């Protein structure tokens, strides 16, 4: 069973800690509680090498919409109106803006935007467990073994999350925002068993995406890490910055050290987060009109998508927005609909998703951002072709649907075909590694671009192929 886990951001321990660095300089900047951003990492020639891939490069950012529990292919992108009742389910189809594409009737708002969307109807993980199939989706690497429910992050399953890859590729960026953010929670199974594949893995803890556990739907929504502590007035903080700057100017020889250079860059990013008005404004949803906020919907997840849009506007490379818990609902309100499938889809799952997803695409388009923002709509798998005895659909990784929009993707495209029950691919089969290759291709990085793990061993971004048919 799946639940979305609310965890406080974990303190990182990779390499030298922030506290150790501050002891070295004797300039402890009290209140810098951003260890994921200010963790040191040696900068070597491998950084410039990793940017040598000749990718398509249309996208500047990626927003991943991750629907934990698995959205069903039959009621979304691949309905089967001519299949037997036990397969097609309780809902019909509707025409879309794309003449050749019919989608589930519970997506009326999305149906008006399919000219911006590429649908992939033959994604395959061959894995029927939340944990391990989710790992494969987010890393592009199959879990060993497959279908391992309640798997956790341990060897040999330590491939980096796609956000960690984005962070690696952008590690020397001087932008004030971190390259990769996950919100509003981490994904875990019942019992707080956190899925593997959500961290830096073999790249190191310093590449973990910045986890922001939050509820942007609340009127008093803030990010605590972005405020100076009360005991550190602004004037005193600025004096410490001035002193730190003086020390830096007297350490020219030391600054040639790769480790120190990297640390300085990450320190500047952390300081930028604390002091930069652009950062604070990015997280301030009160700056949005009520009309815009209402367009997305009022739920925690819906407002998280709005926050994701604001984050890519200020330069975050990859934002993953995970589906949220809904207290009191079966399976925690996730897409894991083993019973009451039709009821849960109709009552809140599909309406919330349809509204917020369509709002995001429309909002990005109206702001001129969709062409440079790749929006990826995924879950860890789909659902079984036939209903079970409890009026639900079970896990199915043998064939399911995902969707991409913006950022170099051609809209109004359907790639791949499933059989008459949406059970197995007939043509155009793709795997998570192909999705990963395509995402980073759109960001301007070839799939064969080399990353280096903590032991200095090279690994490619992905061993998949770019899905040229949708670009």
Give a description of the structure.
This protein is an alpha/beta fold and 471 residues long. It has a single domain (2-470), classed as Alkaline Phosphatase, subunit A (3-Layer(aba) Sandwich). The protein contains 14 helices and 19 strands. The chain has helices at residues 18-25, 45-50, 85-88, 108-111, 130-139, 162-169, 234-249, 252-255, 258-275, 277-282, 290-296, 300-313, 341-366, 432-442, and strands at residues 2-5, 61-66, 93-95, 102-104, 117-123, 180-183, 186-189, 193-194, 210-211, 318-322, 373-378, 382-383, 395-396, 400-405, 413-415, 417-418, 425-427, 450-452, 458-460. The chain has an 8-stranded mixed β-sheet with strand order 9-6-10-2-11-14-5-15, with helices on both faces. The chain has a 3-stranded antiparallel β-sheet with strand order 1-7-8, with no helix packed on it. The chain has a two-stranded antiparallel sheet with strand order 3-4. α5 (130-139) runs parallel beside α14 (432-442) and α12 (300-313) runs parallel beside α13 (341-366). The two termini are 36 Å apart. 51% of the residues are buried.
Briefly say what this structure is:
By secondary structure, the protein is an alpha/beta fold. The chain has 14 helices and 19 strands. The protein has an 8-stranded mixed β-sheet with strand order 9-6-10-2-11-14-5-15, with helices on both faces.
